[in-house]
User: What shape does this take?
Amino acid sequence: MRETLSQFNQLVEDLLLDEKENPVSEPIPAQDLYERIDLSLQDEPLDKESFYPILKELVLSAPKTATRAFFNQLFGGRNEKAVLGELLSVMLNNSMYTYKAAGVMIGVEKTIIRSVLDMIGWGEQANGTFAAGGSMTNFMSMLMARDAVGSNVTTKGVREKMTVYTSTESHYSIPKNATFSGIGREQVRYIPTNELGQMEPDLLSEEIQKDLKNGYLPVMVNATAGTTVLGAFDPISDLSVICKEYNIWLHVDGAYCGSVLFSKNYRHLIEGIEAVDSFSINAHKMLGTPLSSSMIFVKNKKHLYESFSNDANYLYQTDHDELNLGKISLQCGRRNDALKFWTLWKQIGTSGLEKMVDKQFELADVARTYIAQNDDYTLYSFEDSVGICFNYKDFPAKDICTLLYEKATLMVGYGHFRQDEFIRLVTINAQNEKEDIVNFFRTLESFVEKHKEELLAMALPEQ
Ligand SMILES: *Cc1c(COP(=O)(O)O)cnc(C)c1O
Assistant: This one.
């Protein structure tokens, strides 16, 4: 083990050095992948001397997500305080299903869940759990919503025509989960948004009424706190009034930006959160924790037991059941995704998490201001979002992003809203500074200048 650890340390040293020199890994064209690196598996064992160089090449070739040139997705950076917990989780290899197998780690998870529930303003009736990602916490919410309507789905199967409602800008896990849950993709109703990308409550009401008239059973409304492209926040309070009226489960998908809960300045973006039925957050997005660390919080914990416990009736729990988290999990064996968030939270405090969230909005302001002051840019996004959508000169967003990637210059993606396609810069890495954001634009500008001809050629219609 010691030898392996020293090998690990050496690899990490090499990686950190390489990240400084090459913040973007040279992409390996997919068609060359198996020729460039020896990934093959053989019958015979491989000695250390032969293995180590292959491993090193593999590590240094992987896309770099922790550097100041990665703006591609809704995560980034590398917070060492959280990494410490993650490395220890791997060493300890506890499985979170029982107190017997995870012991004190159950306390770690429950402390985090309880602390967030307190922040939401939910009492002893509430509970929550970790799952493998935001798609899975959304899945859990859909299952609980489906089971809560009281048509014995868990025993009889789906017998009614159920519907779920989500905005046109919401995450694709919603229709995917509709297939898993037996509700069916065709029963997902996409509610249009306003020009800011927020769900229109009146249109939701109309859609629900139409479905009721046609004999459907509406089971869930999914509101998004931070839509994937624009970073828009659906109006939770307005939606919860409608859900109360029709007795429909309201879930808030806060995978991207639900962590505004931690900020006094931005919590208003999820105003009304205490009135919803379930709420999910990805600590691996705004809260700088390594992938993955996703939580779901449920106002009435009986739903967690009713949907995810195969035997226990929540009414007859022993104290022990409270500690056997397998009774409220989607999975059986479950890795410890709580410890890394705990090592971070414990060390920087709730105020540190708040600063982290605020910093991301601050960096977003820097980006929007830069764009607004420069005529070569067109801005598509609005305040209170950490996703900054823009175009530069008249070059298609897709071409700029692709070429930046191919030339190992910057990792940034593109997205669309209505008829517009644009570059989406995500300021989710709180380890970045203002200069890093300005530097992003400067790099992009000189890059476009240098590769103008190529970009023009890319934009030509294919012959
Ligand atoms: C990222 C994201 C998800 C999915 O989370 P994963 O952890 O990647 O599965 C769901 N909803 C929204 C709004 C997201 O941004």
